[in-house]
């Protein structure tokens, strides 16, 4: 990996920072955040502006360029990568270390008095703008919105914004029509006495209209906004996608409809002026509902007195609770995904001893097996295929420079998933193709105990997921081991593999309470730097539980695993399991046998079926 | 309980709300919060202004009086009590119910346009002022500080502010001299580049100067403020307390000292003008450190640009980590407290069957036994002595109207504690003096399992206490039971029985990480409305733990119980305990026997000793 040479680019950027064609007044600093205009976690190539200007292409990082300096803030996952990818023009700001200044403090320390700091108001979320603007103002500087993105002005070979065809999802996938979703949304709006709702997150637009796209890799979304009024629907979207007869039919664009369900299609770029027009037309007490993470540009378009901001939108909350059709789809997707992984692990077991399987080949093979399954669309994230020490790098993705060959002497960790038209999968299994050491088995078994503790947990309706996080750690903690990531995240239904508003993480507090129908991952791990990584991940569905006293009718909840892939029994030290845990493993494997076994049989995949049957033999616990 | 007649009082209050002698302009509403000028949890009689004006004397509630209305906001614990204590002039606003308006929303709905809402700026914390002021301003009203407290102007027989003698604590109790505490504080101030620190919480003043008082019942504190500069110490305190030679000697008021340790004693009431003078004298970049919960009056005294506000002050954090002298003192206090409770329970066992022991008598007897112990000062909170259905009222305090007689047919719950000169105690035991039902034993045993799960938990250094809260619930949850309070709170060392910044509660997130030397309570419970209450509470010390892998040298922590009072084995269903839990109980009881037994022996309390020995017989688990 050699660093990107950025001398010329930075020179150009510093010129446009003073060029009256782009800025009303020269800006002495320019901020280049990671995100896109929708605060997406995964972004399109045309939005990778921070990577373009600096060379550093990790998933998190903020660049700030002043007349004299160029600095990059990123977190511990990326210190090494950023240092490798950036040239000497850049200073790496290691977030989380005690002596690293915040962006605000650094700006104040390097800027001449009365400076202007520019940023694209569409890329910076309103809450971040507020914080930074306040800090700069109190030091005598100004944060100013620069309408034209200055990186785009110098990015001559910037890829085009993707504008790929849409997929329409009928009721058998979504369970609820877009019309009924609009009705439900309007009733939430009426409850809060809000007249308008602005849909800014890409997965929320996709969910609301029962459409999917492929504008962003791994996420079946498309670039669009919507403004929902009590009597109007405006969809902001580009390209000829609205010419597709299937889409026109799906959205009933050519039908005679009650006016309140008539969708007005408008250019993607006209959202700001349309929202400003809405904002200007408001009567007193009419409010506009926005996510508090919406961009500064859109938030500012609504006069302050008319804004109604919440951390989670009603769409985000409704989307999280999967209906029967979605749940069934998720089940089907996970069975197909399990078939693919049985094929893969059976293949790996034969091939790994030959010494010819690399991490990249294993990842490719996983994709190949998945792509043979019905309604496969794409992967749901970049496959983490890691062996030995690479497994200890939590966000590892194999590249030729790091690509390691799988062997019978090392633990192999595979964290992978796919988008099927009926659901999204995300599963991690940790395998040994030779003989694991006692220590490796010990650590694996603690992780398994944590996984079971969450999966089998019973808790009252209304419990927030973060309260379950410690259950996953208790067995590890007892021996002085831990892992430095959350235990689970929300999972979309043929949508983003990471979604709010629920999860299982000690890092969050403002998650929404778990309720039946929500889907999260359960993925504790243990990582030994330089040696190995262990993680056991299932996607699990929140379901009602039966308890003796049922929390005085408050209701009881627990989880049902949707993922049905064997957990390698060879890695388990059975003596460390309680009887209850042992039974959990055996019942889980029995279900894998029955459900996935039947599908393997149906697909005529007899060798993989034999592998499944062998891998799901019951554990025998020595009393 | 008959309600207080407030017609005349409200008339008087409405008059002073317009009286130019007290208000610059008439105020259309006046807010009467619960607290005192130090945001204390427990307050002195002279600060019970809300109780005076309304009749409602629960621990939490805010009154607002307008020209037409009088309304009281309180939470679920007090709906019944408030309704009983207030006359028909008052509207009860039940907080936590969906249709109850917030104070701000209610004010906006009842006030005429452009109203002024008054409040005593010393009583309202700065963060609350900010929130309310913003909401009122956006609706066209103004929140205004009213210097003279309007309740005080009509409270003709208001008790005097207490001004009781001080207790000086020498090094054998405190472990660190006040001088060294000042040195440590100044070093924290230097770290944060802060020139001044304002001590506003009463327990922080007491801790800093190694002084105690008795101005507030149950809390050994005294009314005072302090302003600590890098070279100056100002102590604001009233009365002739500074004439006491022991206090003068302790504070070295008459010694020749380095100027930076010379304490300037000033009148309590001069804090505002002194702080204003400090605020006016600041050079750029000189900051003043205040708690963000300090009063609006004091916060406003420092110009905004010079304020440095944090949720936890350096004193709060230092105070939470007990040193060796404090820990030893706490141990001694808990042994004495256990002696008193062995005496009490032995006495109850004999007396309850006679049918002559009421809740109040039992509470009095507990105090009597405690007061026989060395260095006893007072109780640390109002004793919760409750039998049968009263036990299900979590914050119950027996009064003649509710006073129930203990019997051999009902569960008895005693939550009590004391202030000794060497430490503060807080212990809950749940007993049955006859034969408990299978259901009562079942519930008790789940609570015990939760208690043990926390007490025996092992966790990495730096873990926040709220992450342990679910451990206390897991056994209850498995059967569909829960309790609606947090699991633990910080405990002071001969100071407030509730103190920050750590605790074990699902309700908080911003608690400080646990570290060795911190002291918290571990008190899960279960409450069956109308039938019984169960709670098992020990005060526990955070200590280093030995683990196999020690979190890669991050360090392991666990708890050591300081409370050493038998847990009634008659209430335990041994078959529901694991072997590990059974061993925990037996080891705990063994320690009670050894440590408390020796002290009972030393004090010649042979009957109580026999009771202790009988109650600590090992459990035998049927395999």
TrEMBL record, chains A, B:
Lyase is among the record's keywords: no
Chief subcellular location: cytoplasm
Keywords, sorted A to Z: Acetylation, Aminopeptidase, Cytoplasm, Hydrolase, Manganese, Metal-binding, Metalloprotease, Protease
Cofactors required: Mn(2+)
InterPro entries: Creatin/AminoP/Spt16_N, Creatinase/aminopeptidase-like, Creatinase_N, Pept_M24, Pept_M24B, Peptidase_M24_C, Peptidase_M24B_aminopep-P_CS, X-Pro_aminopeptidase_P
Domain Creatinase N-terminal: 49-150
Location within or outside the cell: Cytoplasm
Listed GO CC annotations: cytoplasm
GO MF terms, alphabetically ordered: metal ion binding; metalloaminopeptidase activity
Entry's family note: Belongs to the peptidase M24B family.
Subunit composition and interactions: Homodimer.
Name this polypeptide is given: Xaa-Pro aminopeptidase 1
Source species: Toxostoma redivivum
């Amino acid at each position: 990996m050699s660093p990107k040479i950025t001398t010329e680019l930075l020179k150009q950027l510093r010129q446009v920072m003073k060029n009256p064609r782009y800025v009303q007044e020269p800006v002495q600093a320019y901020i280049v955040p990671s995100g896109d205009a929708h605060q997406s976690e995964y972004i399109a190539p045309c939005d990778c502006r921070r990577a373009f200007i600096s060379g550093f292409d990790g998933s998190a990082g903020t660049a700030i360029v002043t007349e004299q300096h160029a600095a990059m803030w990123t977190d511990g996952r990326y210190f090494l990568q950023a240092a490798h990818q950036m040239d000497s023009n850049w200073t790496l700001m290691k977030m989380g270390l005690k002596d690293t200044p915040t962006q605000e403090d650094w700006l104040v320390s390097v800027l001449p008095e009365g400076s202007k700091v520019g940023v694209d108001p569409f890329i910076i979320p309103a809450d971040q703008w507020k914080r930074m603007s306040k800090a700069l103002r109190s030091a005598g500087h100004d944060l100013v919105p620069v309408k034209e993105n200055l990186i785009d002005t110098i990015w001559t070979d910037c890829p085009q914004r993707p504008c790929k065809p849409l997929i329409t999802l009928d009721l058998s996938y979504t369970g609820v029509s877009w019309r009924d979703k609009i009705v439900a949304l309007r009733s939430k709006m009426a409850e809060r006495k809000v007249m308008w709702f602005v849909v800014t997150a890409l997965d929320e637009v996709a969910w609301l209209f029962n459409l999917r796209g492929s504008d962003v890799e791994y996420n079946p979304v498309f670039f669009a906004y919507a403004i929902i009024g009590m009597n109007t629907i405006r969809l902001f979207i580009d390209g000829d996608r609205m010419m597709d007869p299937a889409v026109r039919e799906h959205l009933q664009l050519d039908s005679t409809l009650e006016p309140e369900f008539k969708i007005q299609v408008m250019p993607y770029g006209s959202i700001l002026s349309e929202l400003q027009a809405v904002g200007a037309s408001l009567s007193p007490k009419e409010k506009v509902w926005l996510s508090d993470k919406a961009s500064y540009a859109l938030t500012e378009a609504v006069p302050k007195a008319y804004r109604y901001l919440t951390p989670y939108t009603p769409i985000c909350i409704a989307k999280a609770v999967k209906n029967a059709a979605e749940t069934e789809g998720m089940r089907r997707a996970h069975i197909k995904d399990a078939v693919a992984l049985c094929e893969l692990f059976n293949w790996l077991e034969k091939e790994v001893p030959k010494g010819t399987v690399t991490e990249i080949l294993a990842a490719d093979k996983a994709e190949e097996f998945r792509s043979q399954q019905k309604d496969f669309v794409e992967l749901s994230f970049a496959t983490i295929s890691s062996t030995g020490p690479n497994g200890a790098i939590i966000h590892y993705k194999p590249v030729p420079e790091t690509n390691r060959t799988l062997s019978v002497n090392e633990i192999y960790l595979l964290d992978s998933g796919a988008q099927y038209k009926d659901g999204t999968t995300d599963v991690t299994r940790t395998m040994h193709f030779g003989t694991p050491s006692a220590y490796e088995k010990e650590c694996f078994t603690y992780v398994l105990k944590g996984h079971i503790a969450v999966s089998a947990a019973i808790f009252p309706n209304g419990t927030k997921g973060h309260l379950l996080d410690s259950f996953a750690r208790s067995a590890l903690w007892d021996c002085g081991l831990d892992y430095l990531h959350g235990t689970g995240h929300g999972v979309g239904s043929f949508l983003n593999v990471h979604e709010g508003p629920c999860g299982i993480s000690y890092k969050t507090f403002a998650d929404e309470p778990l309720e039946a129908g929500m889907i999260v991952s359960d993925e504790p791990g243990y990582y030994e730097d330089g040696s190995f990584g262990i993680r056991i991940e299932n996607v699990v569905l929140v379901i009602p539980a039966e308890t003796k006293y049922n929390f005085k009718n408050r209701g009881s909840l627990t989880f049902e695993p949707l993922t049905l892939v064997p957990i390698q029994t060879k890695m388990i030290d059975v003596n460390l399991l309680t009887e209850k845990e042992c039974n959990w493993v055996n019942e889980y494997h029995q279900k894998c046998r029955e459900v996935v076994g039947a599908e393997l049989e149906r697909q005529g995949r007899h060798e993989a079926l034999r592998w499944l049957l062998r891998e799901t033999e019951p554990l025998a616990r020595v009393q």
